[in-house]
Amino acid sequence: MMFGNIVVANATNWEKEVLKSDKLVLVMFWHQQCPYCKILDPVFAELSREYAGKLKFAKFNVLENQENQTLASMYGILGTPTLKFFCQGRPIQDIVGALEKDLLRQGIDFAVNKHRDCAEKSTPLKLPYIS
Predict the structure, then answer these.
(1) Which residue in 38, 40, 55, 59 has its CB near the most CB atoms, within 10 A?
(2) Which regions of the chain are under pLDDT 70?
(3) Residue of 37, 58, 77, 83 with catalytic role
(4) Helix 35-50 vs helix 101-114: crossing angle, to nearest 10
């Protein structure tokens, strides 16, 4: 499911939307009761439009169900919002907390420039615990 340029990721579609993506993916781990997530949400949406085609944006609700909680725990999510970049199924960079748009843009630019060719220099992972 997508909202604008943002994919709604969950434990069911995680492998397809994040791990097997042919683009660098930025996942926002969030939940509805998180006040800082509510502050970050419109910034995340605006940046998803700005970086369309360069980066895939996804939101993952950590409290939606037990499977999502388990997956978030596997990736070390201890607080929300946490933004995590993935390349070829690997987490490669984190941003924790709600940042101002310009600071978040700097973090995204750094990740996009640093990992521009990560798909060509990476071997995809086979994760036995995720179907």
Answers:
(1) 40
(2) 1-4, 116-131
(3) 37
(4) 50
